């Protein structure tokens, strides 16, 4: 059997959070952590967690598994157990817990909105689409794939200390995605909005964000690009 420790908290029932010790059969080793949760949920329907596509695309089931933020649906149990004898499953750190493994992402999305994550272009819309050269399109690779799972921001110490003021790695990756887009006309305003002590510059370049991103993206690299662009433009 595999020992599983799951964070539990229901404000209507529990005086304080606690870790629940459970077991699943060994046959779950080649399966995903989400399969373990589904199995446990069949035994106890009160266990709360988010999930949707189970393909690593929707970004719903980000959680902390054996100390590292991951998507439960694409995390093989055997891989996680290389780092310990038990599966230890907690909610994303640094986010208020609503219940069990479900966290409140309101502040995460509020920070995301601050970077105006949409194309700004006042030219009349062309008949079909705004064209880009293949080289300009390639600049968006490694940026557009973000699924907003919050794994990076929730693993970022600067976010833990300043969640109201620091945009965090996910939002900043998206800021760079639009700054670098050849079709966008708001680069100067975008840079100006980030030029204060907290929004961008609270990043300490430790790299937790890039370490945990389940899509293999590099938010720390994007943050470095924005810093260099700010210095280069003299904004
Ligand atoms: S590199 Fe910056 S954004 Fe990434 S975890 Fe460290 S402080 Fe946070
Ligand atoms: S950058 Fe990676 S970890 Fe961060 S929200 Fe996007 S997909 Fe998730």
Automatic annotation (TrEMBL):
<keyword id="KW-0479">Metal-binding</keyword>
<keyword id="KW-0411">Iron-sulfur</keyword>
<protein>
    <recommendedName>
        <fullName>Succinate dehydrogenase iron-sulfur subunit</fullName>
        <ecNumber>1.3.5.1</ecNumber>
    </recommendedName>
</protein>
<dbReference type="InterPro" id="IPR025192">
    <property type="entry name" value="Succ_DH/fum_Rdtase_N"/>
</dbReference>
<dbReference type="InterPro" id="IPR012675">
    <property type="entry name" value="Beta-grasp_dom_sf"/>
</dbReference>
<keyword id="KW-0003">3Fe-4S</keyword>
<dbReference type="InterPro" id="IPR009051">
    <property type="entry name" value="Helical_ferredxn"/>
</dbReference>
<feature type="domain" description="4Fe-4S ferredoxin-type">
    <location>
        <begin position="136"/>
        <end position="166"/>
    </location>
</feature>
<comment type="pathway">
    <text>Carbohydrate metabolism; tricarboxylic acid cycle; fumarate from succinate (bacterial route): step 1/1.</text>
</comment>
<keyword id="KW-0816">Tricarboxylic acid cycle</keyword>
<dbReference type="InterPro" id="IPR050573">
    <property type="entry name" value="SDH/FRD_Iron-Sulfur"/>
</dbReference>
<dbReference type="InterPro" id="IPR017896">
    <property type="entry name" value="4Fe4S_Fe-S-bd"/>
</dbReference>
<keyword id="KW-0408">Iron</keyword>
<keyword id="KW-0560">Oxidoreductase</keyword>
<dbReference type="InterPro" id="IPR036010">
    <property type="entry name" value="2Fe-2S_ferredoxin-like_sf"/>
</dbReference>
<dbReference type="InterPro" id="IPR017900">
    <property type="entry name" value="4Fe4S_Fe_S_CS"/>
</dbReference>
<dbReference type="Pfam" id="PF13534">
    <property type="entry name" value="Fer4_17"/>
</dbReference>
<keyword id="KW-0004">4Fe-4S</keyword>
<comment type="similarity">
    <text>Belongs to the succinate dehydrogenase/fumarate reductase iron-sulfur protein family.</text>
</comment>
<dbReference type="Pfam" id="PF13085">
    <property type="entry name" value="Fer2_3"/>
</dbReference>
<feature type="domain" description="2Fe-2S ferredoxin-type">
    <location>
        <begin position="2"/>
        <end position="95"/>
    </location>
</feature>
<keyword id="KW-0001">2Fe-2S</keyword>
<dbReference type="InterPro" id="IPR004489">
    <property type="entry name" value="Succ_DH/fum_Rdtase_Fe-S"/>
</dbReference>
<dbReference type="InterPro" id="IPR001041">
    <property type="entry name" value="2Fe-2S_ferredoxin-type"/>
</dbReference>
